[in-house]
Amino acid sequence: MSISLKRARAIFVKDYKEFSRNYAISIMLIFPILLAVLFRGAGLSMPEVIGFLLNISLVLVTCFAQACLIAEEKERNTLRSLMMTPATIIDVLIGKSALVFVMSSVVLAISIFIFGYEPANIWAFVAAIILSIILYIAAGTICGLFSKTLLEASLSILPVAAIFSGATGGALLADDYPIFKVLDYMPSSQLIHLLGIPHTGFTIGDLLKPLLIIMAWTVVLTLVSVILYQRRLKDE
């Protein structure tokens, strides 16, 4: 399937203009930065704290914004119209994801800078953040496809917040309840493992394991979002 950067860019510009008028989404960009300021002011510097900051930011900014952008298109009955244009499914998804990717990257970069976190390996950390953003964009796309209005999209991210962000807390109960061990393989938990790697004495395997698990989740959710996108269009 061919990809037209020109068409994807046109969708990106359209979404940017709509986003600038959507204050509900815009205000969400402030929360991660405020949390970073509060955590730094409180002197909190544990890996679990920066992990919570990043995971909740990915839900509030990345997943929420993507779900709202998709749901808004459905509410206006313009999502299906996009498919009537020469733009392919990949063009549409890339165009609609690009704005959220840029916003998330900027907000997370500012939050991390304010918090003052220094990763053990900058390249592994950047790769994990990029994969996580794509993962939550896919999750947001799925939420948006099952929402008919912006209000439904806002509520649809609650399961994502509970399952992904809540997994890190549930994994702590694995010693007492072995069934919770599965939560340790959630991408949010693996991100915290990566953040907790010490600056000295780590191996390539220590970096690769969480990265590969996050990558696997990203690939699966991205494929699911593309398949559901095709099916939802046919059902409407």
Question: Would you kindly provide a written description of the structure presented here, covering whatever features stand out?
Answer:
With 236 residues, this protein is mostly helical. It has ten helices and no strands. Helix 7 packs across helix 8 and helix 9 (187-195) runs antiparallel to helix 10. The longest helix is centred in the last third of the chain and has 32 residues, at 204-235. The mean pLDDT is 82.
Largest sheet: none
Our Rg estimate from Cα atoms comes to 18 Å
Spell the H/E element sequence.
HHHHHHHHHH
What do the pLDDT scores average to?
82
Concise synopsis of the structure shown:
With 236 residues, this protein is mainly α.
SSE inventory with pairings:
Elements: H1 5-19, H2 23-26, H3 30-41, H4 47-75, H5 79-83, H6 89-115, H7 122-145, H8 150-170, H9 187-195, H10 204-235
Helix pairs in contact: 1-6, 3-4, 3-6, 4-6, 4-7, 4-8, 4-9, 6-7, 7-8, 7-9, 7-10, 8-9, 9-10
Top keywords for this entry?
236 residues, mainly alpha, 10 helices, globular
